[in-house]
Amino acid sequence: MNPQNEGFITDIVGSIRKLVRAVYLDSQKMSRQFGLTGQQSLVIRLLLNNGSMSSADLSRLMYVTPSNMTGIIDRLEKKDLIERVRKEGDRRVALITLTASGKTMSERIPDPIEKKIISELADLEMDHVQLLAMAMNQILNLIDTEDIEAESLEISPDPVAIGKA
């Protein structure tokens, strides 16, 4: 290791740990207040923002395995927050849809830490956002995230797109 970089590297790793901890604490808070895990609240937000979706689409958006997605959906269905509705024209496909209770819950749950980050990034200069995007992509490449879809790792440098995320 280059001794000149050692302090910076320590700071970067420490910052990543703080970020992971902040996401974890945000998820724990959600669980205590609303009885939802971070993944469950994300499903509710995705369905609210995108409408009904297949479990495969949810799985891809959330970077979880299809079997993990099935468990999340099962638990939300038991809480009467979502339901599986057969797709018209193709009964083999079930679309995951918010129930009335799910829509009510979606209005009550607070914005996740991701939304706070997006909001703050939207206020930065485009050059700064692009540098951060490149740095994040480099870090992800260093830890070998090849098993995650490449296009899902790209962070848009367009401030308008960031504000809509």
Backbone shape: elongated
Give start-end ranges of low-pLDDT stretches. Answer: 149-165
Radius of gyration: 18 Å
**Could you state the order of secondary-structure elements as H and E?**
HHEHHEEHHHHH
Query: For the largest beta sheet, what order do the strands appear in spatially?
Result: 1-3-2
Kindly report the name of the CATH homologous superfamily of the largest domain: Winged helix-like DNA-binding domain superfamily/Winged helix DNA-binding domain
CATH class wording of the largest domain: Mainly Alpha
Fraction of residues in H or I helices: 55-70%
Overall tally of structural domains: 2
What does it look like?
There is one protein chain. With 165 residues, the protein is mainly α. It has two domains: 12-109, Orthogonal Bundle (Arc Repressor Mutant, subunit A), CATH 1.10.10; 111-165. The protein contains nine helices and three strands; from the N terminus they run ααβααββααααα. It has helices spanning 6-34, 38-50, 55-62, 66-78, 100-108, 113-122, 126-142, 150-153, 159-164; strands at residues 53-54, 82-87, 90-98. The chain has a three-stranded antiparallel β-sheet. Strand 2 (82-87) and strand 3 (90-98) form a beta hairpin. Helix 2 (38-50) packs across helix 5.
